[in-house]
Amino acid sequence: MSSLVSIRGLRKSYQRGAERLEVLHGIDLEIPEGDFVALMGPSGSGKSTLLNLIGGLDTPSGGEIEIAGRRIDTLSAGQLSTWRSDNVGFVFQFYNLMPTLNAQKNVELPLLLTRLNAAQRARNASIALQLVGLADRAKHKPNELSGGQQQRVAIARAIVSDPTLLICDEPTGDLDRQSAEEILGLLQTLNREHGKTIVMVTHDPKAADHARRTVHLDKGVLVDEPAFAH
């Protein structure tokens, strides 16, 4: 199985006044195509920073990120934006749905950046909603949906462009246990049956159990057997 994501010597630091804050210290990581990886670690370990770098939401201070054979660490802001819209779907803890739009129109939003016409956008959004089990809620607005249903709409929006990579930042962090289990089961289905490569940040060991493997971070480095794991 070939690597979809290859990370070599990845570093990230931020300037905070006169102080330079080092967040990631030379990360090396390979993520094969079709993998489902959970990123775990204590608060401040660099999980979300690493996720943002893989998803092209941020740029590294050093090192290389190669995804599907393309170096994204060398792209300009404009090139990175285009690359993200073509290759990455994002799912966040808070669903970030447009409250004035129904589920169908929320899912169509990423397609407005494509050359698809209105009929094609509607068809693709309907297929995505069907995949997440919400075909019968297409005309409902977010305030008419439960938290779990809103997250399903957010996942449909993330996959509607058929991205290479699905990036999930605490996707169950705002859900009750039953809704969380349903969302994690859906992510497993997208991974196993639809071949989506998924990278998920979570603080929840039960959520991490749904992934194929878990990668632990502590103080900006990868660790094998972290003291914080139970």
Question: How are the SSEs placed, and which strands pair?
Answer:
Layout: E1 3-16, E2 19-32, E3 36-40, H1 47-54, E4 62-67, E5 70-71, H2 77-87, E6 88-92, H3 103-108, H4 118-131, H5 147-159, E7 165-169, H6 177-192, E8 197-201, H7 205-208, E9 213-218, E10 221-223
Parallel strand pairs: 3-8, 3-9, 6-7, 7-8
Antiparallel strand pairs: 1-2, 1-4, 4-5, 9-10
Judged by helices, strands and strand pairing, the structural class is: alpha/beta
Average of pLDDT: 88
- Principal-axis shape equals globular
- Can you tell me the CATH architecture? 3-Layer(aba) Sandwich
Summarize the biggest pleated sheet: 6 strands, mixed
Flag low-confidence runs: none
Number of strands: 10
Distance between the termini: 30 Å
Q: Report the CATH topology name.
A: Rossmann fold
**What proportion strand?**
25-35%
The name of the CATH superfamily reads P-loop containing nucleotide triphosphate hydrolases
Number of discrete domains: 1
Query: Portion of residues in helices?
Result: 25-40%
Integer-rounded radius of gyration: 18 Å
Helices and strands, in N-to-C order?
A: EEEHEEHEHHHEHEHEE
Give the C-level CATH assignment.
Alpha Beta
